Amino acid sequence: MISVLKKTIIVTLIFPALLSASLLAQESSQRLNPYDLLLYHEAAGKVQKVQTPADWQKRRQEIIRGMETVMGPFPGDDQRVPLEIEVIEEVKLDKYTRQLITYQSGPDSRTPAYLCIPHAASKDHKVPAVLCLHPTDNKVGHKVALGLGGRAGRNYGAELAERGYVTISPAYPHLANYWPNLGKLGFVSGTMKAIWDNSRAIDLLASLDYVDMSRGVGDIGHSLGGHNAIYTAVFDPRVTAIVSSCGFDSYPDYYDGAERVWYFGKGWCQIRYMPRMSDYRGKLDQIPFDFPELLGALAPRSVYVNAPLHDSNFRWKSVDKCAASAEPIYDLLGANGKLVIDHPDCDHNFPEEQRQKAYELFDSVLKK
After folding, report:
1. Listed residue (195, 192, 198, 189) closest to 274, CA to CA
2. Spatial distance between the Cα atoms of 202 and 301, rounded to a whole number of angstroms
3. What kind and span of H or E run contains 239?
4. Which residues pair with 100 in a beta bridge?
5. How many other CB atoms are there within 10 angstroms of residue 340's CB atom?
6. What is the pTM of this model?
7. Does residue 134 have a pLDDT over 90?
8. Residue 336's pLDDT is what?
9. Cβ contact 100:108 at 8 Å
10. Which ranges carry the 4-O-methyl-glucuronoyl methylesterase-like domain (predicted)?
11. Mind spelling out the 3-state secondary structure of 93-110?
């Protein structure tokens, strides 16, 4: 039998150790403030201040883990099967040829896309490329980005082709003509399927002997395409210039935090987006990633954000708060001034002036 004294000694020695381990585990799992990007968890779980780019990479990896918690995992390279491009139709226009294609984005999955090829592009005259991601449209889908949907300000895929860029505009899952079986293909969200399709579209661009990839590629999108562009660039470092129009505010600020948009099938919680988001209804501060962090995760790359003053979907003041939180990371990585926020006096739109600024950004980054 252990004496009372020995029991007391054992409890005295063990209890602090158990308490310490418990506190350490609690700190390790702590959701870091999304508006303070200069914090990270060290290997032992303790919260530390970001002092160096290497420290920031630890926080960035934590952000990506948070994204995958909600979106599902980004597929491995074993899913990069041969593209097996098929041309469905081809139309020759004044400055470029537009092809409707499909490509094999993964095993048992083909993705439709429009590929626009400037007439000047050739093996001996390579030109840069831009991934053009369309907004929500359940009638014509990715046709909108080519000016085929009758909606002004969304035809950036065509305008950039006229400007001399190869452009590719993939269809978005569960819109218009593209309905992949997400569960059967191993995806828990349409968002991750779209990110993967976009990454494979960049593989396709890299395979073309008339595309110049030496400075990476651009990506651009409006609304749905606006956040799709950000998500894709976080996972694919080949994207070196990002344009997001009317694409985001912080998740707690979305529709001013109205609970009605956080039920399964609503807002961000739709199957074609991230159905797991509904798990955070009533506790939005626990969503394990947010746009302040995603903007930081894009650094030191060039980013242009169009956030209109009268956008009814996303609040411009929230966009500014997100950007202000990301600025210290741009400073840390020597990229001060590469995150630009623009506030045109309009509604949920992408005016010509802002599109021209976006195209000039691509020129400055992608053209020699």
Report:
1. 189
2. 17
3. strand 239-245
4. 89, 114
5. 15
6. 0.91
7. yes
8. 95
9. no
10. 194-334
11. CCCEEEEEEEEEEECCEE
Q: What is the pLDDT of residues 229-286, one digit of tens each?
A: 999 999 999 999 999 999 999 999 999 989 999 999 999 999 999 999 999 999 999 9
Print burial letters for 35-73: b (CB count within 10 Å at least 16), e (below 16). eebbebbeeeeeeeebeeeebbeebbebbbebbbebbbe
DSSP assignment of 314-337: S-HHHHHHHHHHHHHHHHHTT-TT
Helix (H) or strand (E) holding 78: none
| Separation in Å, CA 83 to CA 99, 187, 197, 201, 212 | 16, 19, 11, 9, 19
How many domains, the chain?
A: 1
Answer yes or no: is 16 within a domain: no
Rg (CA), the chain: 23
Residue 21, pLDDT score:
39
Beta carbons of 189 and 153 less than 8 angstroms apart: no
pLDDT score at 45:
87
Strand partners, 98: 91, 116
Q: What's CA 17's distance to the chain center, in Å?
A: 42
In whole angstroms, give the CA distance from residue 41 to residue 15: 25
Nearest to 116, CA basis, from 127, 107, 105: 127
CATH number at residue 250: 3.40.50.1820
Q: Are 74 and 61 in contact (CB under 8 A)?
A: no
Q: What three-state secondary structure class fits 306?
A: strand
Residue 38 lies in a domain: no
| Amino acid of residue 354 | Q
* Residue 79 DSSP symbol: G
In a domain, 350, yes or no: yes
93 in a structural domain = yes
Ordered DSSP codes for 86-153? EEEEEEE-SSEEEEEEEEEEETTEEEEEEEEEETT-BTTB-B-EEEEE----SSSGGGGGGT-SS-TT
Backbone φ and ψ for 73, nearest 5 degrees, come out as -70, 145
Domain of residue 354, residue span: 77-367
Whole-number pLDDT of residue 15 = 39
Distances (CA, A) of 193 to 80, 113, 190: 13, 14, 5
Rounded to 5 degrees, φ, ψ at 222 are -115, 135
